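Issue: copy button drops trailing tokens. Both records pasted manually instead:
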Amino acid sequence: MIKDLLVNIPVGAASTPVLDYAVSVATAYDAHISGVAFAYEPVVPGTVFDGVAASIIATYRAESEKAGKAAVAKFDEAVRRAGVSADSHLLESGPTGAGELFAQVARQFDLVVVAQTDPEQDSPEELLPEAALFGSGRPVLVVPYIQKTGLKLDRVMVCWDGSRAAARSIADAMPFLERSKAIDVVTVAREQGSRDTLPGFDIAHHLARHKLKVDLKRIVASDIDVASALLSHAADIGADLVVMGGYGHTRLREFILGGATRGILESMTVPVLMSH
């Protein structure tokens, strides 16, 4: 059940797609939604701390707080119009600490909703999806910055490779899968081979036992990377949501993404639910 979800409120125009989508999820599941925006502290070298620097820092803080409050107000208006239960918060943090703080907050929710990073915009929030994925212990729903519609579940694509993360993502996605009209379980092979033991056969049967309508599909990615193959297939079948495991690890506060995970986050055109 999804009854309590968290959304990061991006500062600026980029907030609209992710906020609209998060509100649509809260509406569909009659869930409470909490919005969190950040007012960022400036990063100033320790050697640059005189009267001029102090003035610049004060100005930066004031502008960041103003932008954060404007983002929160936008969220508050969106949830008011939708008539959903909600609360909002403005948190202060340095750019490097925001991800860890957001992940800590996210641990108290059923689902985390974040925006895909727009490559044309330099944003301190670009690490939030990875931080939530690795640090929250919760499923993370990433919304494309080009998203135009709210939650739709006519066809869901589940990416299966037999891994722990993939299994976790399917369990976490069950509230969405149970409402979907059709589910494609997709496996990726590097070359054509025997189909006597088709990967994904058992997990497809598992979902069918939940009375879900499942099709098992095997795609071959001999000349392109896995992420491109998955996204191409998602476009071909008109998937409304992609479910997959999120791969990678943390090292000294750095988020090291696996190749497929990084490729999906960079090039996704439909919402993606990831679990680690």
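Record 2 (pasted manually too):
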Amino acid sequence: MKKKIFFFGTPDIAVSSLKELSKLDNVKIVGVGVFPDRKVGRKQILTPCPVKVIAQELNLPITEINTKEDLISIFNDNEIDLGIVIAFGMIFPEEILNKPKLGVVNVHFSLLPKYRGASPVQSSILAGEKTSGITFQKMVKGLDAGDILLQEKFNIQNKRTSEVFEEFSNQTAKLFPSFLDQLFNSNITPLPQDESKKTLCTKFKKTDGEIFPKKETAPEIWQKYLALNVWPEIYLSTSKGNLKLTELSLVASDNCSELSCAKNTSLFIKQAQLPGKKAMDIQEILKGNKDLFS
């Protein structure tokens, strides 16, 4: 008999898994929980989240969730064997977590217990971690504190957040068939997290993207560049306003501009963007702004 799954997710990183789950013979997706359409862009156009778009294409039942009461109703009104959560920005009330026969599984993009919280990929990269990974965990009351059900390591060295998101999204989808087979056949031994090793990470602010070459070394700024490329991106305060650094390099190349950093280190700007302008090669920008870095 097929296991009944209710899926909760919002962004692109959850899409591959929903697609994969919809193909499996041993599960039936009885619902997809998403947030209501939100206004996006300068024109504030109501736009569905990526998970809702795919759920519509797959003809899956969709429930829009505004409040925790909506969440509670889902678990009270539906027969659910397993809840699956990927990047869904709402805390689940403790009272509903054990209602499904197999509980609720949350997929978190870090090697828990490190980097619990809202920005695990960005924070791992910013800290210079060489490896990170994907953790399937049993959802409990505490933030990302549940028992580990499955964990896979991956190399993230010199990868940007957007690249890691794409890789982890695809790898999560690939892990689901085997994971669910093991879970359904009671072949997984939950592993409690070591609380002494936990670290926490929060959301980044726009101002976190500013770099300070006189204080920060090239390796430190490079990790910022890798970590913050989705949001908020990095920028340098100049005489012409905040210059967004859209493409950097660790080595010099034709048409780049050297950025001198602390402790006699250097990065090389290849492409940048001035306020109100398009991203351009740095040499093109400097032709009309010779005093940019003065």
